[in-house]
């Protein structure tokens, strides 16, 4: 479950950070010379008002004056004998600022710990009073993580998926392999569905070029629907030639400034190609890394691979249904600051996939608002995951990790070499820990929730 590791680590950071340690009681501090008031604002916002006594301020201030006094050099006075009022006149403002800052830095984490507050955001601090003759008073507005007590309704069922493989699915899989490993050959006829065309194109909007509007020697399989609506259709039944086409960018296009916009493309169709299917022979077996030498075993190997894929997909679909069911049972809000952080990570990932970064992408390229809904769901699920781990008191022992590595190593030609390598990969080991944690949680949830069987066909997987 993407995002779980980051969140659990965040919750592990203790009351002085963003959250709490899931398997350990919070540490409380008895704070002298301080008053704390917590006010609930809307949703998960809290206003923490903290008041520190004049004595606490004076002790810090006087200590700093004393430290300066032993070092200060002021004309007309011997070193170490400068009167306090002279030091205060010269250094008082800077010392006052230091003391205020230190008092806030010291009192804020103690205040949230003493009141068992779990911050989800950095505090927005406002100083209400800093008169040295009165208690220092300041307020911090933060978002907190919600208090979640997992609920398990016996009236809701998750779907336990089972996937059926039919002979036609196997035939389609073999046909797909033959196509993917086949060779494209030039033809002299007009283009048709499933052909590959090689084109240069240049797009313009109202006569002006736009970002991502052009490509050279672009390979496009007609019928793949990988271009905007209407683009591929207008390349059908064409021989190599130059012509223009008009298209409209879809309403949900990832660049918002192009959504619903009409564009004209100059096309140079250079080649039309059709596929020559790959032969089922030793060369194909090697490309597919199949340890077989007989054509008659090819179909059996394909079936075995499909069955392995089905087992993985059954688990993933069942787990997804289980989590969806849990989210419906457990209603709670997610901190907006955490949701925004998650949405930002999702946007960065989307940009990276098309070779962009935040620095070279405008706000209209994958606007962050389009990720908010998914980000909120991810955060809610991660928060619930952490609470469920606590609820079932799940802990991962070293033996669990060793057993997992043993299973993983069996997939490699040299298991011992893999084990030695993985031992020096702390990030990968942490990822393994989270996988094991989730596996154990899913087993616990199977006993806590009701299920109903859901049978689907292998061909339906593409729509899941």
Fold topology:
Elements: H1 4-11, E1 34-40, E2 45-52, H2 54-69, H3 84-114, E3 124-129, E4 136-143, E5 157-164, H4 167-180, E6 183-186, E7 196-205, E8 208-221, E9 241-248, E10 262-276, H5 282-287, H6 298-329, H7 336-353, H8 372-391, H9 398-409, H10 415-423, H11 426-448, E11 450-457
Helix pairs in contact: 1-8, 2-3, 7-8, 9-10, 9-11
Q: Find the structural class using helix and strand composition.
A: alpha+beta
CATH class value of the largest domain: Mainly Alpha
Helix content: 40-55%
How many DSSP E strands?
11
Calculate the mean pLDDT score and round it.
Answer: 87
The radius of gyration is 32 Å
CATH topology of the largest domain: Trigger factor, domain 2
Percent strand equals 15-25%
**Element-by-element helix/strand order:** HEEHHEEEHEEEEEHHHHHHHE
Describe the structure.
The model is unreliable at 1-31 (pLDDT under 50). The chain folds into three domains: 24-143, 2-Layer Sandwich (Alpha-Beta Plaits), CATH 3.30.70; 184-276, Roll (Chitinase A, domain 3), CATH 3.10.50.40; 292-463, Orthogonal Bundle (Trigger factor, domain 2), CATH 1.10.3120. Strands 6, 7, 8, 9 and 10 form a five-stranded antiparallel β-sheet that branches. It has 464 residues and is of the alpha+beta class. A hairpin with a 4-residue loop joins β1 (34-40) and β2. 41% of the residues lie in helices and 21% in strands.
